Amino acid sequence: MSLAGIPMDKAELLSVILEALLYGFSLLMFGGTIWTLLSQRSSHQVNRRMFTVACALLLCSTAHIVIDIIRIMEGLILYRDTYPGGPVAYFSDLSQWTFVAKNYVFTAQTLIGDGVVLYRCYVVWQSKLVMILPMLLWCATVATGIGSPYTASRVIQSEVFSGSLSQWITSFWATALATNLLTTFLLVCRIWYVDRKVTRLRGNRQSQLQPILHILVDAGAIYSLTLLVALVCFVSRSNGQFVVLDMVTPIISITFYTVIIRVGLATRVMQTTDIAFTNMSMDTSLSTRKRTMQVHITTLTESKVEHGQRSSITVPSSSKGSPNEIELDNGGGEV
What we know:
mainly alpha, three-stranded antiparallel beta sheet
């Protein structure tokens, strides 16, 4: 027990409480995400890919917390006095269907979240060569994510932190962490490179894509830190990794929703600023009563066409241009 640290019954109870709190917050963020995707857009402008992903993440996190509640009820109420060894032994039994099922749901949640980052990275880079290593890591996450709960269902309690199960779980946390770090790094580097080039060409030191970079870095840092904590807990043979495991599921949803909402709010702020500058420019032009013709280069677009689809990074070259837009697919979505 000293190696495991916190007893399993206390770990399970703590994990479901923390997961419930994060799940409630994720519901709020889901509402904000749907509002951001649907507000001030016609039906053909809605990014259906991101809308579908948002709903899928909500379904996964809901299924996960429902299974956890069932697991708590069984361990602490239904089988408290009938299961050999009591609640601690019940929660330590990884062959229970509740543990296996919730880990498969967690794997699906992880793969969806990492898949979204992979998709954004590919659309921004439009290079299959760049995506080879991230895709290999993602496939490794798929394999270890499926193998871990399957192996857990066939081991005894004493083999949680040893044997083949330990190798499966360690590999899963490591590959998931590596995938997230690499894809976030590639995505941020590409946007930073384009923004730096555009800023240099227009002779303006003010960056138009810095808010987007900060959003992506923040989301990647939160998720990566959570995965790192889970990996450290498991390597140190602490039952705290079960607490972190249940927290990761809503955190994946929250980080996805955060990117959508913050990018949407940043775009609205830039649109408001652009309108203010435009109105100020019109008032100045009318007051001088001079008939002049001005030509402004408002937008610089870097685009690439591949197999009939276009991806682009568009940035205004002055404050009078249209708001900056990162087009991540050819379906009209910006986020």
